[in-house]
Amino acid sequence: MRTGGVPDSTPGPWVARSQEEAWTTGRPRGKMFDTTAGTPRGASILHFSTASPERFSSLAPDRGADLERLTHNIERGSVKARHLVVASDEDGVDVGRAGLFTHPDGTTVAYAFQFGPGWTDAEELYRVLLDGLAHAARATGLRRAEVSVIDRRDPAPEAKRAALQSLGWVVDSDRLELEAGTEGRSLPVDARGTGPAARPGADPRESRIIEIDPTDEDVVRVMAAAMGNSLDDYDRTRVAEVGAQQAAIAYRDMMADRQVRVPWLAHRDRSGISGIAAIQAYPADWNLGYLAVLPEARRTGVGARLASAVLAATAQAGVPLVTASVARANPPILRTLRKAGFRIASARTDFVLQLDRGNHVA
Questions:
Q1: Residue range 308-325: average pLDDT?
Q2: Which CATH superfamily is domain 183-319 in?
């Protein structure tokens, strides 16, 4: 059951360095207000351009931290310099940015949307940035891109949805963002379980949560079984495309960060491993990226115990918050997480653009 989110970044903007690397949308933009004088600067034309990493990070609240993360992602191949896009006006004012992030399984997502202060036409700025991302994606041979609209995080989320739909992006999944605080979660991760046994014949006294290496063969085995019997649209699509085994390997590799030590957890009973909780570390929180339970072990409390253990592990690491993302079409996992202490924090809509179909606004 997929619960993960999208790459985290603290988003910023810039201007074109040459005519060759800038395109004009041909649409007048909204009024840009000078935040020092408080008066309209007047309408002009928006351009999108590719940016250097330094320029891309220039509008981030913490430029140094943003550039450090961006440099790390470029070095590991998740981000290409040609996939960094910034919108600017004809006066050379930086007004917004967005980029493309590619996961190990080949999924490419638009991320790091950031607006400059005082912008009044959010939908138009989104259109320009998204148009720029489509240009950059096609120029590097990408055939598909995805993007999420998260109401509590995105500036003007309804404007973003409207811009996406106007440019031919299609709704892929309606989801809910969840979160849970970790204060008071002090149970040791490897404590013996007291809940029901995972499978028929298993002794509840032998049921426990353990830490597991992402490369353990049981991780892919349990994830493949879970993805092959999932209510989540993402799981179903990936399994239909490449099969459950390859889908599990790709999603495991996408979540496992070899350079950041984060515990993954497993539920083990006398019969073996019956559940997996994959955890991803972000700057401000940890994310429950995937909660996998064998079909025969469902409705026995395994998922809720794993989710509670994730909160305990996160608390022990000194991280105050755990997040997750759940498809609206998957009520069982929503009930499981809410039982463990998660609450609904925001609506989320995932969109997809098939780049080989020519849907593009010039």
A1: 95
A2: Gcn5-related N-acetyltransferase (GNAT) (3.40.630.30)
